[in-house]
TrEMBL record:
Keywords: Membrane, Transmembrane, Transmembrane helix. This is ABC transporter permease. It comes from the Bacteria. The chain crosses the membrane at residues 12-33, 39-63, 93-115, 127-147, 182-199, 211-232, 252-271, 283-302, 322-348. Coiled coil: none annotated.
Length: 358
C-alpha cells in the first residue's frame, strides 16, 4: 500500500515540480557558496525574526504539498484510494506520515543542516524550535491528507489560492516549468553545469577567453530546441496571437523578454563562478551575446516545420563553424552584434512574409 501511495503522490510530486526545484537549487546554491549558506543559518539561529521567516517559507511549501495531495485524491484515476479509509487508523496515519516526510524531504534536509549548526554552536533554543516545527509540519500535512481521504466532498475543505495574472512574457516559461519539467531540467542543468565547469576550468591552466566563448556556444546549443517548443506552444494555446494588432517590433520585444528570463540563470552562474582574471563587464557581454543568439535561433525556428534531423544537422554544422570562428579569435563583441542583428533581421523577414501571405 505504501508503494502505491509513493507512486501516486511522492513520485508525481517531484516529477511535476522538478523545474521549480532546479530553479531554487540554481539560485540558492549557484549564487551562494556553502560557507555563505552556513553564515545565513548562523544568523537565523541567533535571530528569532529571521528564523520565523524561514518557518514561514517552509509553511508555504507545506501548503503546496497539501494542495497537491488533495488534487491527487480527487483525480478520477485515484478514486480507488477512497477505500483506504477502511484501513485501521494507526496504520493509515503511519502511511500518511511516511508520504508527508517524503514530500517534505527538501525542507527536512535543510532543517537537518540547521540542526547540525545549532548543535555545534549550542543554540539549544533554536534547535528545539526547529525540531518542533518540523514535527508540526509533518503532522499537519499527514492530518490534512487523512482528513481529505475521510471527507472526499470538494466542499469539505478548501485551501486559499492566490490568483496571479501572468504577463505574456511569462506564458511559455511557466508552461515549460510546470508541464515539461524534464525538458526544462535537462536543458538548464546541462547549460548551467557546463558554464560552471568552464569557469572552474579556466584558472587551472593557460587558457584565454576563447574557452569561455566555447562554453557559451555549447550552452546556447543546449537551448536550440526552445524555438520549436515556443512555436508548438503558441499553435496549441495561443491561436489568436497572429491576429493581434501588434507590430513586428512589439512582438520581438516580448520574445526578447521571454528569452531573457529563460537565460537569466546562466547570468547568475557565470557571475558566481567568474574567474578572477576575467572582468565582470566581459561576463555581461558574454551573457548578452548568448541572449542574442537564443533569439537568433528562435527567429530561425519560428513558424518553420523543419525536420528534427535537418535541424540537428544544422545545429551541428553551426557548432563546427562557430568553433572555427572562436579558434580564429572572433571577439565577443562580434558574436553579440551578429546574434542580435541576425535575430532582428530574420524576425523582421518572417513577420513581413506573414503579412504578405495574409
Amino acid at each position: 500500500m505504501l508503494t502505491t501511495l509513493n507512486r501516486i503522490f511522492v513520485v508525481q510530486f517531484y516529477n511535476q515540480n522538478a523545474g521549480t526545484f532546479l530553479v531554487v537549487v540554481l539560485i540558492a546554491f549557484g549564487f551562494l557558496s556553502g560557507n555563505e549558506h552556513k553564515a545565513l543559518i548562523t544568523a537565523a539561529l541567533g535571530s528569532p525574526f529571521f528564523l520565523t521567516l524561514i518557518f514561514l517559507l517552509w509553511s508555504f511549501y507545506l501548503l503546496k504539498t497539501i494542495a497537491f495531495i488533495r488534487d491527487r485524491l480527487t483525480a478520477p484515476e485515484n478514486l480507488f484510494l477512497q477505500t483506504y479509509w477502511l484501513i485501521p487508523t494507526p496504520t493509515r496515519v503511519g502511511m500518511w506520515l511516511a508520504v508527508q516526510i517524503a514530500v517534505l524531504l527538501p525542507v527536512i534536509a535543510y532543517a537537518g543542516w540547521m540542526l547540525q549548526v545549532a548543535a555545534f554552536y549550542q543554540r539549544w533554543d533554536s534547535f528545539g524550535a526547529i525540531m518542533l516545527f518540523i514535527f508540526v509540519l509533518v503532522g499537519v500535512g499527514a492530518g490534512a491528507a487523512d482528513y481529505r481521504l475521510r471527507h472526499p466532498s470538494p466542499s469539505s475543505i478548501r485551501l486559499p489560492q492566490l490568483a496571479i495574472t501572468l504577463p505574456y512574457e511569462l506564458f511559455f516559461p511557466v508552461y515549460w516549468l510546470r508541464h515539461e519539467p524534464l525538458s526544462f531540467l535537462l536543458t538548464k542543468a546541462f547549460s548551467g553545469l557546463l558554464l560552471a565547469g568552464v569557469c572552474r576550468l579556466y584558472p587551472t591552466d593557460d587558457y584565454d577567453q576563447r574557452l569561455l566563448l566555447i562554453g557559451l556556444l555549447l550552452a546556447v546549443i543546449a537551448h536550440s530546441q526552445i524555438g520549436g517548443q515556443v512555436s508548438a506552444f503558441e499553435r496549441r494555446y495561443l491561436l489568436v496571437l497572429p491576429n493581434l494588432p501588434l507590430s513586428w517590433l512589439q512582438r520581438f520585444r516580448r520574445y526578447a523578454l521571454t528569452y531573457g528570463l529563460i537565460w537569466l540563470p546562466e547570468l547568475l552562474i557565470v557571475i558566481r563562478n567568474c574567474p578572477a582574471d576575467i572582468r565582470l563587464d566581459y561576463v555581461i557581454w558574454l551573457w548578452l551575446a548568448g541572449w542574442g543568439w537564443l533569439l537568433f535561433l528562435h527567429s530561425l525556428a519560428y513558424k518553420h516545420e523543419a525536420l528534427p534531423e535537418r535541424w540537428l544537422s544544422g545545429v551541428f554544422a553551426g557548432f563546427i563553424g562557430g568553433l572555427l570562428f572562436i579558434m580564429f579569435g572572433l571577439p565577443v563583441g562580434a558574436w553579440l552584434t551578429v546574434g542580435w542583428a541576425g535575430a532582428i533581421g530574420f524576425w523582421y523577414r518572417t513577420f513581413a512574409q506573414q503579412v504578405t501571405d495574409s
